[in-house]
Here is the input.
Amino acid sequence: MDYEKVESLEVELQHVKDENNALRLMLEDERRKYKNLQSYLLEIKNNESSYVHSLDTNKRTRLEEFPTAKKPLQVYVKTHPMDDSLIIKDGYQWRKYGQKVTKDNASPRAYFRCSMAPNCSAKKKVQRCVYDRSIIVATYDGEHNHDDAFHHSFLPSSSGNNNSPLTIIQNYKEALNIMEQNEHGIKIEEYVSSLIKDPEFTVAIAEAVAQSIIAQPMQQCLNFNLGHPQE
DNA sequence: CGCGTTTGACCTGCGC
DNA sequence: GCGCAGGTCAAACGCG
Here is the structure.
């Protein structure tokens, strides 16, 4: 084997090692996310009730804003991970009046008022879950004081409206289902992890790279003959 | 032109 | 009393 070939193989091997390290980092990140999700689930379990307050990062209670003694209803909405909007089709018409980035969640929190009636005191805060960005946490405050509220809500106070394309999560059991979905992710993760740990896997990649390097001059020759531009 | 959204400034309560 | 952080206001802007 000539010197140039060995050198290029060493470069490619280094590249494979770099990719390997990158994959390890990704796995560590995924494991961290999974642990976060587990603690999140535990939090939900600890607070399991129709009124869940665990995710409300607002530790201070502004009594003048929401004077009712009733705890705000929190609803978790499973959305598509690629969907960045904070819009929840809950049947009401909401007017956004503010947005704020909170300290412990990089996702901005949006503030909405009900716009179906001029004197309606209903408000909601919408923010992506810090543990799983595909979940939107909507915190409802105040009550709708207009009749048509009864016909629009998907919330437990009304009859079930399942027309929404979104998945509504109102208790820990449904959150558990999401966890189970992530369990599949962990199985994939374990599979990838085992591949990385396997020395034969790394050797096989190195061999494949070496073969591609050997085959490359032939491909370049073919490209040249066909008139394709060379890289 | 009206309505909804955006966004920076401001207000207010809480913790130290 | 002060600083921090969440919540609200309101002017500017965009869109139908």
